[in-house]
Amino acid sequence: MRLDKFLSVTAVASRKESARAVRAGEVTINGTPARRADEPIDPENDRVVFRGVSVRYKAFDYLLLNKPEGYVSATEDGKSPTVLALLPERFAARGVFPCGRLDKNTTGLMLLTNNGELSHRLLAPRRHVPKRYRFTVKFPLSAADLAAIEAGLTLDDGYRTKPAAIELSDERNGVITLVEGKYHQIKRMMETLHNQITALERVSFGPLTLPADLPRGAWRELKDDEIAALFAAAEMDKQ
């Protein structure tokens, strides 16, 4: 692989930026200054350092975002900003996209990746990957409401939801766990019970949990053990 392509696919620098850095002596290969931007390297074995930072080859990106309100879970939208606007532009260039959807005004944990197979498997209904949400509703929930949610509800379009786990911290606040992800599902479940969601935050997705120290609107790359846990949840061999 060419050096400039390597720096591009690892989201470190564009090919033009790579050429400038090579000319300035800011890129080394195995401790030796790179001579040309198109110099061939072995991405798996050569050690590349760009402006003092070691660059690790990776075929895919795995990002955890604490989504704020007002952003659309998409790669593009004609009316509202998308979650990609919260990331450096290099990730959009690498084809990163949201794994699943959160409503525009739902906050919390979102996984973004460019690994399409992993995303597809994590969202496949037959795998029942759990998703936990912290919620607030307008009216108190009764014991009958909880029993109905746990048994499964029939939504306005006739769809019967799978049983969901729900725990209350008081009459209007709690955590609900889904193993599916239908459009506006929790909102529609509460509307079926003649109630209304006033706040909704996703706090976990499969093995991932929203970090307490990650501010709203901030993101970070997943750690190796978190990536491995996602592959296990998707029943895939780690790539």
Polypeptide structure, described:
The protein has 239 residues and is of the alpha+beta class. The chain folds into 3 domains: 3-55, Structural Genomics Hypothetical 15.5 Kd Protein In mrcA-pckA Intergenic Region, Chain A (Roll); 62-125 and 208-233, Alpha-Beta Plaits; 130-205, 2-Layer Sandwich (Alpha-Beta Plaits), CATH 3.30.70.1560. Helix content is 23%, strand content 24%. The chain contains 7 helices and 13 strands. It has helices spanning 3-9, 15-23, 89-93, 116-123, 143-151, 185-192, 224-233, and strands at 27-29, 32-33, 48-50, 53-55, 62-67, 97-98, 107-113, 131-137, 165-168, 173-178, 197-205, 208-209, 219-221. Strands 5, 6, 7, 8, 9, 10, 11, 12 and 13 form a 9-stranded mixed beta sheet that branches. Strand 3 (48-50) and strand 4 form a beta hairpin. Helix 1 packs across helix 2. The longest helix is centred in the C-terminal third of the chain and has 10 residues, at 224-233. It is elongated and about 70 Å long. The two termini are 19 Å apart. The model has no long low-confidence stretch (mean pLDDT 94).
Structural class designation: alpha+beta
Termini separation comes to 19 Å
Biggest pleated-sheet summary: 9 strands, mixed
Per the CATH scheme, the topology name of the largest domain is Alpha-Beta Plaits
Report the C-alpha radius of gyration, rounded: 22 Å
Number of strands: 13
Beta-strand residue fraction: 15-25%
Number of domains: 3
Name the helix and strand elements from N-terminus to C-terminus, one letter apiece.
HHEEEEEHEEHEHEEHEEEH
CATH-level-2 architecture of the largest domain:
2-Layer Sandwich
Query: Count the helices. How many?
Result: 7
CATH class of the largest domain: Alpha Beta
Helix content, binned percent? 10-25%
- Tertiary shape: elongated
